Amino acid sequence: MKKPEDILYLKQFVKQHPDNRMGWYLLGKHYREAGKDGKANYCFIQAGDIYDAYEQESHPLAHPEQQLEELKQWDRRQKKRKLLRRTAVAAALLLIVTLLIPYNQFVRKDEQPVDQQPAATTTTTAARLAVGVVFVPQANFQPVGYAMEKLMEAGGGAPRYTLAASLGEEGGKMQWISRARLYMTADRSQGGNPLELKLLDREACLCEPWDASRAEGVFKDWKKRQETHWVLGSGILQYKRIYGNWPQSLNDLIRPYPNNVLSGEGEGMKESFAGLLEAIKKKAALTEKDSQDSGEGNAKAAAADTLRMVGSNGLYDEDWDKPLEIIIDTDSYQLAVVQNNMVIRSYTVGLGGDKTPEGSFYISEKVRDPKGSQEGMFGTRGMTLSGTLYAIHGTNEPDSIGKDESLGCIRMRDSDVEELYDLVPLGTSVTIKGGKLPFGPKKPENNFSLVPKQDESNPSKVYQWLT
Length: 467
Known about the structure:
Elements: H1 4-16, H2 21-33, H3 37-47, H4 49-55, H5 65-100, H6 122-128, E1 131-135, H7 143-154, E2 161-166, E3 169-170, E4 173-175, E5 181-187, E6 196-199, H8 202-205, H9 213-243, H10 250-253, H11 269-292, H12 295-304, E7 325-329, E8 334-339, E9 342-348, E10 359-368, E11 381-385, E12 391-393, E13 410-411, H13 414-423, E14 429-432
Parallel strand pairs: 1-2, 4-9, 7-14, 12-13
Antiparallel strand pairs: 2-5, 3-4, 5-6, 7-8, 8-9, 10-11, 10-14, 11-12
């Protein structure tokens, strides 16, 4: 009963089922063990005869209505004191952040706060703003404090507008395609206030929260742009790995087959290419320096460059530049696109049982409309694994998805493989192993897609993949 997740469950349970006396009794026992006698007594009173049965006595406050009302008033006073303490902590953190981050460094005086701009311009606003997002782990019970600590760690590298949120978690990984819970925004755009903090979640702040509709709009637009950042950043890193040097322009990544690192151009890629390349190069140089240094020198290098905490994509994560990866779970028939600890997409696939090899591979070839010995047998897209006869490809047998009917390849529905083809660059690592993805498909309402710019077909070859 001492586990925090058990307590949270019980609190939510009695809210949803206020007539369930056993729930009230178990919650009261927790409060009693924690020394919170007032709350424990309140729960025991709600438990009624369940308390009598398990404790073998009636609760001394079970009947006098006046004492019950006094108990409720005491509980309300305790909540107010707790709110005041949290407010004081947040104010102290806010003051520290204000002192650390000069206001004029980030914003013009004629700019409005994000949350005060018209809803109709949300997309335009989000597109020009430097938006950062702190993802709070679900296990953290002080989300606002956690977000403020990240903001302070970022220092001058923090974007103008920061939003704290949590996403669903399954199998130890955050799920990109899940309902977000927004906790707060920090906006450095108010003329008289260097940093404006707005709390958005009633339970997290024990307060009357701000209207979150505009923050939700900014977050939605940010997520769309974030996917493009991941794809572009992964393309830059894979280009460096394949060719040994950095790309000079976006055109280096979007070339005809077989050098098609990216399968096309996404919205905003051209404008963000130079800045993202520079950020990745700086992070790579810092990482190389850290590998050569040790002790105090290593700590100084970490403090000298805030790219450790905030990349140009606005994620408060030291691994913001880690490229996209593919994980295929042979037990659950799932293929997932993963960035660090985040599942971006997950699809149900067809496999070949023991004929599908486990191990580590990479995408060595990407081809549109791969030609096979039968019309459409490989669907509309194909990606060869490490130069072998194994591939991830579409299929003209959609009923085989979720089954072991291939000769070893990974089959996907055409709509799924087309999205995957646009998401992952040439060179992307692929891990095939059982027990890696204990959850179902995670896909958005609208597929991610790039606009093709080059010929990525290979009509002269008849592929012999082990379909």
